[in-house]
Design a protein that fits this description.
It contains 3 helices and 3 strands. The protein is an alpha+beta fold. It has one domain. The chain has a 3-stranded antiparallel sheet. The protein is rod-shaped. The relative contact order is 0.15.
Length: about 160
C-alpha cells in the first residue's frame, strides 16, 4: 500500500506541472492587451496633437503669404483673404493626411489681430482635429466616447517691410 499511495502523490505532483506557465501566459495576456490598447490610443491622440499644431502653423503662414502676394498684385483685401483661406484650407488637408487623418477631420478657424493682411498685424489660425479612437464599436457610442478633439493654434505676423497703401 505504501507504494500505491506514493505513486498517487507523484501523480498529483505531476498534474500541477505547467500550471505556473499557463497562469503566467493568461495573466500576461490580461495585462498586455489593455496596455497595448492604451499605447495605440495615446499614440493616435498624440498624432492628432502634432497634426493640429503643424496644420495651424502652415495655415497661418499660407494665408499670410498668399494673401499678401495677392493683395500686392492688385487684388482687393477681401479677395486676397479669400484666396489665402482657400490655400490655407488645402494646406490643412495635406497636413492632416500626412498624419493619417482624413481632411474632413480637420476644421480651421482664422482670426486677425487688427485689419487682416495689414502690415504689422497678426493672423491666428486654430485647427481642431477629430481623432477617432481605435477599436471601440459603434454600438457603445452612448456610454463611451468614440472620438476626441485635439486643437492647435498658431500666429503668423504680416511683414511691414513692403507696406502697401
Amino acid at each position: 500500500m505504501a507504494n500505491g499511495s506514493r505513486r498517487g502523490s507523484d501523480w498529483n505532483a505531476r498534474s500541477d506541472e505547467g500550471a505556473a506557465m499557463l497562469e503566467f501566459i493568461a495573466l500576461s495576456l490580461l495585462l498586455l492587451i489593455p496596455l497595448v490598447y492604451l499605447v495605440v490610443t495615446l499614440s493616435r491622440i498624440q498624432a492628432g496633437a502634432f497634426a493640429a499644431e503643424s496644420a495651424a502653423s502652415e495655415a497661418a503662414r499660407t494665408l499670410v503669404v498668399t494673401g499678401v502676394r495677392e493683395f500686392e498684385g492688385g487684388a482687393s483685401r477681401s479677395s486676397a483673404l479669400t484666396q489665402g483661406e482657400r490655400r490655407a484650407r488645402a494646406a490643412v488637408g495635406l497636413v492632416a493626411s500626412d498624419f493619417g487623418f482624413a481632411p474632413d477631420d480637420a476644421t480651421l478657424v482664422f482670426a486677425c489681430d487688427g485689419t487682416c493682411l495689414a502690415p504689422g498685424s497678426d493672423v491666428t489660425a486654430e485647427v481642431t482635429i477629430r481623432v477617432i479612437l481605435p477599436g471601440i464599436p459603434g454600438f457603445l457610442s452612448g456610454s463611451i466616447p468614440l472620438e476626441a478633439e485635439v486643437a492647435g493654434s498658431a500666429r503668423s505676423p504680416v511683414d511691414s517691410f513692403g507696406e502697401v497703401s
